[in-house]
Amino acid sequence: MHIKQRSFVLRDVKHGATVIAGGDVLVWGRLHGEVHAGGKTDRQATIAALEMSPQQLRIADVAAYGSRHMSSAGHPEVAVVDNNGLQIELLPFEGLKRGATPNVMSKSMPQRNEPASAAMFTGAYILVAGLALIVFPLLTFGLLFDPRLLPVGWIRVGGVLASLYGFYYLGTGYVDRQSHQASQGFYQATVWGRLFLFAAFSIIVWRREVERTLLIPAVINLLGALTMHLALLRQQRRTI
C-alpha cells in the first residue's frame, strides 16, 4: 500500500502487509507488518500505533527490524528517529519520556543499504561478462573454454541470458537503495531485462547465427515485459 498524503490513519497492519507514506503514519490498531514513513528524506516523521509489534519500521532512510519473538509494550507507542539520526527508538505515545521498552526493536540498520550495494556490484560484473560474450564471443568464451565447442550465435545467447541476470540485480539494488522498495525494483528490472532479451535475440536471429525458433522465447519475453509494465502502471494509478 503506497500513500502519498502527509499523514494517514488506518486500522490494523497485518503481518506481511506494508504501508508507505510521505509523512506521519498512525495505525489505529495493531501494527504487525511494515511501515515506511517520511518518504526518502523526512526524518521528522513519526509512526504511532496502539499496539506496536512490527516486522520493520523505516523513517526516511533509517530503519529498524522487530524481533520474531517480541511482544507489544501493552500501551500505545510512537517511533521516532533519535537525536543522533542513527536509529529508531520507541516512546510512550505521549512522547514525554525516552527509553521506553528498549528491547522491542532490534539493532537499527545502518544508513548505507549494504544488500542493495552488494546486488548492484553483482549485477555490474554479471552484466559486463554478458555484454563481453555478446560483443566479443570468441575472445571472451576462449578465456575459459575452447571456442570451437559452440557456435558463435549460441555463445551470444548465453551472453544475453547472463546480461539478463545482471539487469535484474542492478535494477533491484538501484531502486532498493533509492526508495527502499526492493520488490518494486525487481519488477521494473524484469521489464528492462526482458525487453533487452527480445532485442538481443532478434538481432542474433537477424544475423543468421542461430535458428529462427529463437524468436519464440524472444516474443514470449516481450509479451511478458509488456504485461508487467501495464500491471505496474495500473498499480501506480491506484496509489496516486
What are the salient characteristics of this protein?
19% strand, five-stranded mixed sheet, alpha/beta, 240 residues, Pectate Lyase C-like
Can you characterise this structure?
With 240 residues, this protein is of the alpha/beta class. It is built from five helices and ten strands; from the N terminus they run E-E-E-E-E-E-E-E-E-E-H-H-H-H-H. A five-stranded mixed beta sheet has the order 1-3-5-7-8, with no helix packed on it. Strands 2-4-6-9-10 form a five-stranded mixed beta sheet, with no helix packed on it. Helix 4 (182-206) runs antiparallel to helix 5. It is elongated and about 70 Å long. Mean pLDDT is 78; it is low at 95-111.
What's the helix and strand layout?
Layout: E1 2-3, E2 7-10, E3 18-21, E4 24-31, E5 34-37, E6 47-52, E7 56-59, E8 62-65, E9 77-81, E10 88-92, H1 114-135, H2 137-141, H3 152-179, H4 182-206, H5 215-238
Parallel strand pairs: 1-3, 2-4, 3-5, 4-6, 5-7
Antiparallel strand pairs: 6-9, 7-8, 9-10
Helix pairs in contact: 1-3, 3-4, 4-5
